[in-house]
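In the design runs reported in the main text, the only information available to the sequence generator was the tokenized backbone. The following block is the verbatim input for one such run; it is reproduced so that readers can re-run the procedure and compare outputs position by position.
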């Protein structure tokens, strides 16, 4: 008989009942150190007092009105995002995949209104992940996600990762945009080198294409800058955001320049919940922390410590680990042993990590993780690695 919850997830035998900062407490009382942060969502850790206050204050005032009316918390969060980024305008969604939907619609509408309706194609890359909606899986195009769900949304051109010749050959008069994650998350923590991101920007400028960045996982301070593309010194035309922006409240956003968003006039897109008072009150509190240069400086310090420790760990367990990859607090351990064995051994050592493709174990701690907690996490990873070697 089918379970009452649709069985689409392979869940670990763990049930968490409480969270405190970087810690998750299991139903049996065990305290796990959380290097997963709900897949890069709990940017300020669990039960951060500022987020609890923002949520409960708003809950007592007003939960939801719909976008038929003005929403001051939404306006405030949009103003903060516009102030802190390349963007001129913001649309709020409830998830990353909804942000992908709008990025695709906005791109096509832009060229349609500009009198180039034939420009519908969006170039994407192998190993990417843009969510599980029909546009999201069509954009990523992997067999694993798309099999049996056809017909897929047409208009995506899938290219290998890191193949410049394939890229230039793929651009035609039908091309509208290039869509890419500055750091692939699900694909195995693969950062795009800064010079490649610059190269993509140049290519888009040369051919009049829009550059769409999916910063759902790598954005909101995760790499040590507010958004990952800042490291390369370039700006996108459209950016997808979600995960960290709500700190655990379901919230996403599409940020865009006035030029890219030019087709999105009244009535062209909408969402019942997107940008609702509760989500945006929390989002404002998250932004106030994460956009603070002192906060980002601390992220870079703890990221440096974690990275250094991981390099040492790889050196002392060469039979378990191959290498460290990633940037900021978006790090991956490329494993030699099956990453799921390391994941399970880490559970035994009371440490939460997240698997990714390419036999990588992801480390995505809350951005608020302390230096002591980083040291403790490294100790627990060492215990896990010993257990895997001994098996
Ligand atoms: C998680 C993720 C998404 C999808 O977000 P959902 O909120 O699960 O819909 C899209 N893109 C990237 C890069 C992601 O990591």
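Verbatim output:
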């Amino acid at each position: 008989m089918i379970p009452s919850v649709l069985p689409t997830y392979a869940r670990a035998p763990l049930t968490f009942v409480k969270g405190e900062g970087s810690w998750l407490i299991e139903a049996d009382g065990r305290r796990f150190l959380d290097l997963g942060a709900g897949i890069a969502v709990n940017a300020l850790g669990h039960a951060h007092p500022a987020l609890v206050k923002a949520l409960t204050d708003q809950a007592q005032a007003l939960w939801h009105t719909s976008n038929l009316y003005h929403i001051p918390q939404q306006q405030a969060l949009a103003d903060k995002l516009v102030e802190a980024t390349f963007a001129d305008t913001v649309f709020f969604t409830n998830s990353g995949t909804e942000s992908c939907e709008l990025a695709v619609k906005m791109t096509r509408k832009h060229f349609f209104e500009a009198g180039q309706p034939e420009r519908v194609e969006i170039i994407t890359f192998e190993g990417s992940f843009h969510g599980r909606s029909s546009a999201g899986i069509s954009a990523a195009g992997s067999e694993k996600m798309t099999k049996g769900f056809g017909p897929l949304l047409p208009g995506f051109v899938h290219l290998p990762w890191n193949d410049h010749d394939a890229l230039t050959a793929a651009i035609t008069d039908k091309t509208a945009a290039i869509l890419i994650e500055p750091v692939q998350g699900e694909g195995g923590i693969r950062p795009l080198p800064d010079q490649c991101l610059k190269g993509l920007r140049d290519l888009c400028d040369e051919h009049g294409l829009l550059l769409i960045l999916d910063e759902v996982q790598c954005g909101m301070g995760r790499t040590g800058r507010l958004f990952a593309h800042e490291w390369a010194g370039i700006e996108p035309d459209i950016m997808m955001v979600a995960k960290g922006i709500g700190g655990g409240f379901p919230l996403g956003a599409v940020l865009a320049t006035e030029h890219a968003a030019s087709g999105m006039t009244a009535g062209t897109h909408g969402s019942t919940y997107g940008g609702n008072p509760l989500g945006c009150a929390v989002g404002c509190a998250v932004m106030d922390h994460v956009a603070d240069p002192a906060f980002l400086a601390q992220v870079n310090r703890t990221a440096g410590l974690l990275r250094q420790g991981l390099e040492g760990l790889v050196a002392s367990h060469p039979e378990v680990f191959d290498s460290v990859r990633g940037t900021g607090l978006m790090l991956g351990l490329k494993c030699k042993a099956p990453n799921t064995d390391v994941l399970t051994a880490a559970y035994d050592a009371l440490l939460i990590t997240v698997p990714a493709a390419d036999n990588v174990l992801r480390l995505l701690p809350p951005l608020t993780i302390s230096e002591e907690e980083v040291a403790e996490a490294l100790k627990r990873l060492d215990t896990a690695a010993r257990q895997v070697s001994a098996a």
